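Figure 6 in text form: structure in, sequence out.
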C-alpha cells in the first residue's frame, strides 16, 4: 500500500493533498492542520493521543500551552470524514485520555521503513566528503522538500564545511531552535578570523534576516548596502539586493525598493532567486496597495510552485494580495497552502506568521470564536519562538477582536501588551495601532481621547502612516459628534467601509460594512458609544 494514503472503512484520505474520498459524497478537502492531526492519530495505531501531545506534535508548541484548539479541530475533522459526526466511527473520544483513530488499514503500517531510516542507511554507505556534495546537490534540485529531520540525518554524516554548517544553522532557526542564530554567529566570527570575506558576508546577510525577530532590531541598511557593494559572488549580491528592496518596501520607500530590485535583476539571479525577486516585487505592490499588479507578477510562477520553502513564501504573499482585494476565500486558500508547506517543512516561524493571518480572515468573516482560537495559537507559538513582531501584531489583533465583541475591558490589556512589545522593538506603526486602540477604549469607557487621537494623527502624517492617520481622524470625528465627517482626508478607497460606517452611525442606521475588520471595529465602537449592541 502507498504510505501517502490513509484507508479507513468507507473512506480514503490522500495525506499529500488532504483530499477525502467517500462513495456517498463528493470529495472533501482537509486543511493542512486537519491532515497533520489525522496523520498523528493514525501513527498512534488506535491508542489514545492526549490534548497535550497533539498541541506539541501537530501545533508545534515547545512548552505547556493551555488551549482547546485540538477540540475544535477534531469537531471540524469529524464533519469531513464521518458519515454522522454525532456518532463517530473513526475518531473516538477516550474520556480522560484524548482521542483515538480506529479502523486504520495497512497504508499506515509502522513496519514500512521511514525516509529517515533509508537516508541513514545511505549515509552509512558513503564517505563524509561525498555526502557533503550529495546534500548540497539534493538541496539544489529539490529545495526544501526534504523534511528538516531527514536533512539533519544526512548532514550529521557529512563533512562540516561552511556551507553545510550554515544550512544547519538556518534549519535550526526556522524550526524555532534559538541556537541556530548562535551557531551562525560563530560561523561569522570564524570566517572573519580566517579572512574568508565572502563567507563572512554571507553569514552577516543571514544574521540580518534573523535580526527582524529580535526585541530591538538594529537598522540593517548600511550593513546590507556594504555587502551588496563588496560581494564577489553574483548570487550573494543578488540575494542582498532583494533583502534591501524588502526593507525599503516595508519602510514605504517604493523608489528605493525598485532601484534595488533592478540591481538584483542585473546580478543574473538563479531560478530560486528569481522567485524570491518576484515575490519581493509582489510584496512591494502590496505595500503600495496595488494587489492586481502583485498578482500579475506572481501569476507566472503559479504552475511551477512546488513543495519548497520559496513556494511557501509565494503562497503567503499571494494570500496577502488577495486579502487586499477583499477576496477572503482566495486569501484563506492561499494561506492554507502556505501553512501546509510550512508545517510539512517544519518552518515553525512561518507557521506562526501564517496562522495569525488566518485568524484575521476568520475575524473578517465574522467567525469570532474561530478567530479567537487561531490568534491564541499564533500568540502561543510566536511567544515560544521569541518572534516578537508576530507577538505584537497578534496582541493587537486580540485587542481588536475584543472590541468587535464589545468587550472593552478585555481589549485594554491586549492593547497595553501590544504597545509594550512594539515599543521594545521600535516598531512604530504597530505602536500607533496600540495607542489608537487604547484611545478607542477610553472613548468606549466615557473618557476624552481627543488629545491622544490628535497626537496619533499628527505623528502618523509625519511618517506617512496613512492607515493610522485616517483611523485617528475618524475616531476624533466620533468624539466630536462627527463635525469633521466632511473632512476630505476621510475619503480614501484604501479604507473602504470606514466612511460608510461613520455616516450610518450619524443616521443611527446599520453599518453597510463590506467584511473589513476596520469597519466592524468602527461599528462596535460607535454602537457602544450610543449604548447599543454591536451586530
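Output sequence:
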Amino acid at each position: 500500500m502507498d504510505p501517502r494514503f490513509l484507508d479507513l472503512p468507507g473512506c480514503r484520505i490522500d495525506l499529500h493533498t488532504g483530499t477525502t474520498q467517500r462513495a456517498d459524497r463528493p470529495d472533501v478537502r482537509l486543511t493542512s492542520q486537519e491532515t497533520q492531526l489525522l496523520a498523528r492519530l493514525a501513527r498512534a495505531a488506535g491508542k489514545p493521543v492526549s490534548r497535550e501531545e497533539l498541541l506539541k506534535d501537530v501545533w508545534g508548541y515547545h512548552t505547556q500551552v493551555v488551549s482547546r484548539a485540538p477540540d475544535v479541530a477534531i469537531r471540524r475533522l469529524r464533519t469531513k470524514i464521518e458519515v454522522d459526526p454525532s456518532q463517530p466511527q473513526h475518531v473516538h473520544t477516550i474520556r480522560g485520555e484524548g482521542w483515538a483513530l480506529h479502523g486504520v488499514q495497512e497504508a499506515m503500517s509502522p513496519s514500512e521503513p521511514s525516509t529517515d531510516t533509508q537516508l541513514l542507511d545511505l549515509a552509512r554507505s558513503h564517505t563524509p566528503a561525498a555526502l557533503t556534495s550529495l546534500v548540497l546537490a539534493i538541496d539544489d534540485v529539490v529545495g526544501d522538500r526534504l523534511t528538516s529531520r531527514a536533512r539533519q540525518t544526512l548532514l550529521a554524516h557529512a563533512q562540516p564545511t561552511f556551507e553545510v554548517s550554515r544550512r544547519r544553522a538556518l534549519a535550526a532557526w526556522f524550526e524555532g531552535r534559538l541556537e541556530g542564530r548562535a551557531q551562525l554567529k560563530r560561523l561569522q566570527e570564524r570566517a572573519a578570523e580566517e579572512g574568508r570575506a565572502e563567507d563572512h558576508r554571507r553569514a552577516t546577510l543571514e544574521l540580518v534576516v534573523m535580526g527582524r525577530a529580535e526585541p530591538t532590531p538594529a537598522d540593517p541598511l548600511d550593513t546590507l548596502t556594504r555587502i551588496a557593494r563588496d560581494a564577489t559572488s553574483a548570487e550573494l549580491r543578488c540575494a542582498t539586493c532583494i533583502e534591501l528592496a524588502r526593507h525599503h518596501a516595508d519602510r514605504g520607500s517604493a523608489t528605493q525598493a525598485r532601484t534595488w530590485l533592478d540591481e538584483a535583476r542585473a546580478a543574473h539571479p538563479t531560478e530560486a532567486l528569481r522567485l524570491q525577486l518576484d515575490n519581493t516585487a509582489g510584496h512591494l505592490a502590496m505595500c503600495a496597495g496595488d494587489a492586481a499588479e502583485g498578482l500579475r507578477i506572481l501569476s507566472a510562477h503559479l504552475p511551477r510552485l512546488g513543495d519548497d520553502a520559496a513556494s511557501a513564501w509565494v503562497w503567503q504573499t499571494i494570500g496577502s494580495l488577495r486579502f487586499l482585494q477583499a477576496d477572503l476565500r482566495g486569501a484563506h486558500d492561499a494561506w492554507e497552502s502556505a501553512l501546509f508547506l510550512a508545517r510539512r517543512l517544519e518552518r515553525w516561524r512561518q507557521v506562526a506568521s501564517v496562522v495569525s493571518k488566518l485568524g484575521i480572515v476568520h475575524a473578517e468573516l465574522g467567525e469570532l470564536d474561530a478567530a479567537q482560537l487561531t490568534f491564541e495559537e499564533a500568540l502561543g507559538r510566536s511567544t515560544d519562538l521569541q518572534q516578537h513582531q508576530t507577538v505584537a501584531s497578534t496582541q493587537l489583533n486580540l485587542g481588536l477582536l475584543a472590541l468587535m465583541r464589545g468587550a472593552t475591558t478585555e481589549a485594554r490589556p491586549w492593547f497595553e501588551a501590544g504597545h509594550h512589545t512594539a515599543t521594545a522593538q521600535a516598531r512604530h506603526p504597530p505602536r500607533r495601532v496600540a495607542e489608537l486602540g487604547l484611545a478607542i477604549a477610553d472613548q468606549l469607557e466615557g473618557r476624552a481621547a481627543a488629545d491622544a487621537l490628535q497626537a496619533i494623527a499628527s505623528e502618523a502624517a509625519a511618517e506617512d502612516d496613512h492607515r493610522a492617520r485616517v483611523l485617528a481622524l475618524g475616531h476624533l470625528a466620533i468624539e466630536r459628534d462627527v463635525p469633521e465627517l466632511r473632512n476630505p482626508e476621510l475619503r480614501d478607497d484604501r479604507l473602504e467601509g470606514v466612511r460608510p460606517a461613520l455616516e450610518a452611525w450619524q443616521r443611527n442606521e446599520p453599518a453597510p460594512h463590506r467584511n473589513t475588520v476596520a469597519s466592524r471595529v468602527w461599528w462596535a465602537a460607535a454602537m457602544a458609544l450610543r449604548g447599543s449592541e454591536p451586530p
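Caption detail: The longest strand covers residues 25-29.
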